[in-house]
Design a protein that fits this description.
Blueprint lengths: L5 H12 L5 H8 L3 H13 L18 E9 L5 H8 L4 E6 L6 E7 L2 H12 L4 E8 L9
Antiparallel strand pairs: 1-3, 1-4, 2-3
Helix pairs in contact: 2-3
Length: about 140
Amino acid sequence: MKELDAKDRDILAILSKEARIPLKTLAARIGLSRSATSERVALLEKSGVIRGYRADIGQLEQNQVFAFLMVTLVRTPSIGMLDQLARHPEVRRVSSISGQVDLVVEVEVPSIDRLNTLRDLIASHQSVEDLTSLIVLRRDIDRI
């Protein structure tokens, strides 16, 4: 792919905020013809700069608690711990990371009580040295 110029950066800035903008409107805003804009967008998609378009959906249910559990293990890897985490449907994602914490566990539960129960189950596993809970208060940017 060629290096991005000012028009390409303008296209990306607009599409990152308004993914469903009509091509005609996008072209007018960046000062190019519709066909030139279409060609640029196609090249940005083909080169992988634009990887997709998405809907930014807010929280669907009020009674959901999102949290990150930061897990420090006695030793890594701990397949038994991963197996236990996989048994819980509230566990949405587990990431092994570098640093003092070994796992970041993203959970979605219906209540704080359920979060505490899940947290206690995980913390009691023999391979867990320490566990810290971080409750999500608000998602300001969510591109997943």
